[in-house]
Amino acid sequence: MAALEEEFTLSTVPLGAGPNGLLGVEQSDKTDQFLVTHGGRTVILYKVSDQKPLGSWSVKQGQIITCPAVCNFQTGEFIVVHDNKVLRIWNTENVNLDKVFKATLSAEIYRIHSIQGTEPLVLFKEGAVRGLEALLAEPQQKIETVVSDDEVIKWTKVFMVFRHPVLIFITEKHGNHFAYIQTFSSRTLSKYTLFHGQEEKSVIQNFTASVDRKFISLMSLSSDGCVYETLIPIHPRDPDENQRVVRSLLLKTVVAGNAPSGVALTVLDQDHVAVLGPPLPASKECLSIWNTKFQTLQTSRELPQGTSGQLWYFGENLFMLHGKFLTVIPYKCEVSSLAGALGKLKHSQDPGTHTVPHFVNWETSRGYGFGSQNSEQSKRILRRRKIEVNVPPPAFEQLLSTIKKDSEKDIEVELCKFLAVKRTPDFHAIVGDIVLELLGRHTTEPSFYPRNSLMQLIQTHVLSYSLCPGLMEAALEKTDVQMLQLCLQQFPDIPESITCACLKIFLSISDDSLQETEINMESVSDCSDPVQEKMDEQTEILQNGFNADEQNCDSCDRKLNQKPQDAAEETTSCPVVPKRAALLNAILHSAYSEMFLLPHLKDIPAQHVTIMDWICLLLDANFTVVVMIPEAKRLLLSLYKFVKSQICICSELNKIEVSFRELQKLNQEKNNRELYSIEVLELF
Amino acid sequence: MFSSGRERNLRGCGLLLADAGGARCPPCAVGMGEFKVHRVRFFNYVPSGIRCVAYNNQSNRLAVSRTDGTVEIYNLSANYFQEKFFPGHESRATEALCWAKGQRLFSGGLNGEIIEYDLQALNIKYAMDAFGGPIWSMAVSPCGSQLLVGCEDGSVKLFQITPDKIQFERNFDRQKRSAVHKMLVDRQYMGVSKRKCIIWGVAFLSDGTVISVDSAGKVQFWDSATGTLVKNHLIANADVQSIAVSDQEDSFVVGTAEGTVFHFQLVSVTSNSSEKQWVRTKPFQHHTHDVRAVAHSPTALISGGTDTHLVIRPLMEKVEVKNYDAALRKITFPHRRLISCSKKRHLLLFQFAHHLELWRLGSTVATGKNGDTLPLSKDADHLLHLKTKGPENIICSCISPCGSWIAYSTTSRFFLYRLNYEHDNISLQRVSKMPAFLRSALQILFSEDSTKLFVASNQGSLHIIRLLEGSFKHLHTFQPQSGTVESMCLLAVSPDGNWLAASGTSAGVHVYNIKHLKLHCTVPAYNFPVTALAIAPSTNNLVIAHSDQQVFEYSIPDKQYTEWSRTIQKQGFHYLWLQRDTPITHISFHPKRPMHILLHDAYMFCIIDKSLPLPNDKTLLYNPLPPTNESDVIRRRTAHAFKISKIYKPLLFMDLLDERTLVAVERPLDDIIAQLPPPIKKKKFGT
């Protein structure tokens, strides 16, 4: 659940809005330390948790800082630009900015981007991008012009995609917006025209973006108060062509339309965005956290003294101006889960070890197959349909013909082309048709198994079991656990028999062959590699599940005794290797009805002892949850009755015992009286 | 409760029928005759509770101290025979007991003295005040050369063990409160008490683990380096009072106030991992009361407590051969006689810790058949209650066969009384001015004609004293064999008064000629200690019973084993005979039937008829059923030399008063339990 914590003020010096206000907040190479650039002349390094400045640097009178200072993560130095063209590079030991390294460039700089894993990138106002090292080697080099006249850069951001930086900047010209994507792996620059769709009249006020594997999801906050999402492919099909991208509505009216002062938007994570602005026309400005998946407001915080329409988000902190002070609001979004809600979310006591989630992690497990999410998906499709009615279906026919006769490689290429274009309303049906076509060829020609293409198609998130019957059967036949996992994660409507067949395969596949396959480990992501080694060891021991020693009663005792003390230890070690765990998780996450599943579960041979361990572990982890479900109520009631009757029996037995003891005493007394007797004994 | 292994075996034998040796049966053998048995249950003996046990691995001996200060030594190699004992003392309550430097035994007690025992001479070597008030705990350093005692004043004192004494070395004054916990190793680690509970015992393992047992019923494992609690076992609702760790430190035993003994073992977590863990493995409930002391031998868990039983529970996995070492042992009664008998006057003398009781048996004129209880014409009389003077326990006592003399001894004094009977009146007269050498006796015996008194002193010497009317005369003293200081514990005199046999605990039996006052011969030494001996009338055959249940017959005049003894050694005793778990404590003979030997242990009484064939392992050893309608032939076929009766138990004494009269002294366990404090009530059912 997303939550905002208590805010605190960072700067003691009041800041003005506008050019003399806050220019930017950037991360430094040390956690918890941030560079705050005041419009005008000062850069201050803050330690946020201590709320105190660690250093402050100013440019000379007459000079003016024109772009926020950043930290070069590779060298730990700070870089700032003043008077548009002058670079200053320094470190914490330097006192006077005037005396530090200086480089004067030939063109005006819009922004310096610096993120972990790459050198700082300099974006010029004319749209050109340079790496810092190259620039410093030859500061006066000629900088080309990319954008046209009157085209102004409005916003920019940089991402790391597959270890290479990707830079996006948005320009505006006569009310039209363009997106430029500069990739550095392939050194391509592609331009997109942002199509406003039906909301032509609204003016885009703020941008934010997040990156997926293949798309940059650009979100924009428009003057109508809505958040729109535009998906821009990172690797365009044809870089030279000017392409159009359409935006779709993501959140409706998060701020009041035509808000007088600044509004701002920033992406927090996959599902959450922070929005700065007044929620209602007359209300005070607010910081709100929205869940984009469920389109719900998670939390909000009023900023009565007003804000500047600037919002930064780093790590766990949101930075903004509140009144005239730079304010930090820590933001936390704990993974929500049923177990967590019921207080079962327990953490390992040993601070050194990882926390292993004992619950099914619905949030991060990418379970697109589930009802609510699925409807979400279809909603989006519907929205798109509304927007993209006019887009003609691409070379679908051509793809089909390729599938009929060409090699797998060719099909892959064609498929990539097909998938890169915009999605039509009947996209899911088309994808289903493609899969069926591929499977059709697979049945007639068993050696033909276009695995990559199929995987790609499944990852479009639009397929379901019923759209492409036979796909999972084919995967089962090929023991393609990776694809099965993917299907289990994606398809909302897998029949229980297939789920069971998957389970059988997941249990029976050898660890060796598992090692070779690539499996999405997200659901067991907490098990890091060193742990995995330990698990492997563990598996060897427990592989047989049973050792002869345990027949001994002593060791049974031992087992029983061990249990409570070692609960922590036991739970950290999983009886199966992480890869198998990931596969089993996929089964557990999939939708099934137990009525239909049970008959098939009976077919699972008992030799798969691991499943017992696994289920036990799962039951342990979710015990409180299990106890509280309504189905358990009857069992609990009868247990209660049983225990009660047991107690009755015990108390009665105790009474009987006491009575017997009294009788015994009486008997003894009778015997005791014969302290002396003379008897006759005959020995034979 | 008393279904010992032996009994079960005997019962299990009931299906076997022997076919051997029937033809050789002499006709006289059928029927051993009828006896009138005086069945006595008024010997009100209650053993003292066990306070400490200490196991010595080197000699496989167990030292047990009781609440009255008595210290007993059990030889675990010799069928758990109680081979030695040191009499108790009222002011010397033993609180700690330990073996050091090989086989030296030390104790500490409430009088603040450290005592070393002389295991040869069976007396106290010396007592040394530790000057720290009552001693509560005692431990020896791993190398065995240093002794630590924990005193009431909270100090722990270290003594160096010198060859003939101990020497104070230093004082650890660390705790204001009294050091009530045991210090098992000489490291300076004091009890870790968390709440208001008493740590009854701690053990310090070489890996740094400290195990504590406390009054809250917990067994806790601590890391001594960090002082942190590693593990906690709540095992009882009452105090856990004792702990003992095995030498290998892979197993330990604790005893609780509920009478339960728990076994903990260091076991591997999984079958092939090296990681090991302390796990509670087996609970045993052999006690009804507090288990005050436990010990851990390599093969057994030993426990003792307020209920006076010493329980030896073998660890089955450690016992290699499933012989009778593998059986549970419960030792309740001393392995020596506390009762003597005047045949002539039908008197019984009972020995208690601090007094003697003299009883006259009743009589009957009625007769009956087997199993009948006869009406008494005269009940038994309590004639005398003789209290000792001083704090010392009585070591031994004896009444003369004529009933006119009573002698007893404590550690420092020897008492001789003359009894005069005038009709129903009895008068007692102490014989004063005992000679100085008669200070302490380990065994006292009167000759059959009551004219001589034989005294085995703790210096190894044997004194012969002639008794006259109201006075005495020292006749002779047999000095111990040169080089030996072993005390004689058992004496036997021949009915004709010519021979005296004396036995110590390990060396052979010496036979002295009383007429010529010289050593006649020595019966070859045997591996197992002698538990009883007697000389048969007319033949002067010496019958010796050993703790391994072997019985030898040695002809004193011939200085050799008798033919019968050789035969039975050749053939071997019946396996069930050898599996009995209490020693034979008394042997007597029938005046008219020279072929009969009468002997008994705590659970059976046996007449061996040497004229009958010996039983082999296929023969039914114990056949309590009288022959009913079986023919004489079958009876003859099944008849063998051992006639056993198990009617009287626990049997402390049995002797023949005359040809047709026996006296049996029983001490039912229920009567002992009735005199103990009530045990902690434990619900058998439910929570």
From TrEMBL, chain A:
Organism annotation: Felis catus
Predominant place of localization: nucleus
A Pfam family assignment: Nol11_C
Domain spans labelled Nucleolar protein 11 C-terminal: 397-610
Entries under InterPro entries matching the protein: NOL11, Nol11_C, NOL11_N, WD40_repeat_dom_sf
Domain Nucleolar protein 11 N-terminal: 1-332
Keywords: Activator, Nucleus, rRNA processing, Transcription, Transcription regulation
Keyword Metal-binding attached: no
Protein name in the entry: Nucleolar protein 11
Localisation per UniProt entry: Nucleus, Nucleolus
TrEMBL record, chain B:
Gene3D superfamilies: YVTN repeat-like/Quinoprotein amine dehydrogenase
SUPFAM superfamilies in alphabetical order: DPP6 N-terminal domain-like, Quinoprotein alcohol dehydrogenase-like
Top-level taxon in the UniProt lineage: Eukaryota
Record protein name field: UTP4 small subunit processome component
Species the sequence originates in: Felis catus (Cat)
